[in-house]
Amino acid sequence: MTIVGSVISTPTVSSLVETAETVTFPQAGLTVVKILTNASYVKIPIDASRNAVFPVAGGNPTNSTPEAQISGTGRNVSLPINGTVLSYSVYALTTTPTTAFYYGSALQNAKPLSAYAGVTATATLSGGSGTATWTFPSGGLKLVGITGTMGLAAASQVLQLAFATSPGQTFTAFVLAGLVTQSKDSDDILPMSLPVSQTVAVTLSGGIGSDKVVIYAYYQ
After folding, report:
1. What pLDDT, on a 0 to 100 scale, did the predictor assign at position 3?
2. Closest Cα to residue 205, out of 160, 172, 171, 169?
3. How far is residue 99's CA from residue 38's CA, in Å, rounded to a whole number?
4. Are the CB atoms for 8 and 38 separated by under 8 Å?
5. Which domains does the chain have, with CATH numbers?
6. What is the pLDDT of residue 61?
7. pTM for the model
8. Share of the chain above pLDDT 90, in %
9. pLDDT of res. 105
10. Cα distances (Å, whole numbers) of residue 27 to 6, 19, 31, 34, 142
11. Which stretches within 48-201 are classed as H helix?
12. Residues 19, 45: Cα–Cα separation, whole Å
């Protein structure tokens, strides 16, 4: 259980636009064991219809200060590389996001890529409120976690998420600025266990002005 090396990817992208990228490793047969980025999130394909989502930074870095404990940062994963090239997508405030892919042997509490199966939705608030829709790859799934990053355009501090869970019932949660700080692997994702339809409309409120936010939903 150790890290033996890393590759760094710093592509030039458009701000707040999800962009497909690739990263090349020095040899075939390596295993990615930790992912760290200053972007809002990184996605890695699981298969043709699913993506693993890594929300490994807390939005606008001027609005929150991630804990700087290097051994605890990033997400522990066990991701064998098929060949030397890994495809991924990145979404960031900056136009030159940097992502580190550490490789070696699986670390303690490492999860398979499928454990991070998730979807994202983005919204630009109007007067601090807005809507977003999670779209899942198929029906008959279970929602197992939610979180969000905010303060991508303004200094919002709290955001309320509300969505219907069944006829006549609504689930409400609050997201705090800096919730996703790169120094936790699960505490920043609210654990849930609810059946979920293929699309889920989410009402957002309590933000500031025309802030940009990203909300995440994890499923099984």
Report:
1. 93
2. 160
3. 7
4. no
5. 2-116 (2.60.120), 118-219 (2.60.120)
6. 45
7. 0.90
8. 62
9. 96
10. 12, 25, 11, 17, 37
11. none
12. 13
pLDDT in tens, 3-57: 999 999 999 999 999 999 999 999 999 999 999 888 889 999 999 999 999 986 5
What single-letter amino acid sits at 159? L
Distance of CA 177 to CAs 20, 55, 168, 207, Å? Answer: 27, 13, 30, 10
Residue 116: phi and psi, rounded to 5, are -100, 20
Quote the CA–CA distance of 10 and 23 in Å, as a whole number.
9
Position 149, amino acid:
T
Contact residues for 49 (Cβ-Cβ < 8 A; gap 6+): 137, 138
Which spans in 67-174 are helix H?
Answer: none
Residue type, 215: I
Cβ-proximal residues to 19 (8 Å cutoff; 6+ apart), any chain = 11, 13, 89, 90, 91
Q: Count other C-beta atoms under 10 Å from residue 23's C-beta.
A: 18
pLDDT at 103 over 60: yes
Q: To the nearest whole percent, how much of the chain has pLDDT over 70?
A: 89
Q: How far apart are alpha carbons 14 and 117 in whole angstroms?
A: 25
Two tokens at 210? 């025309």
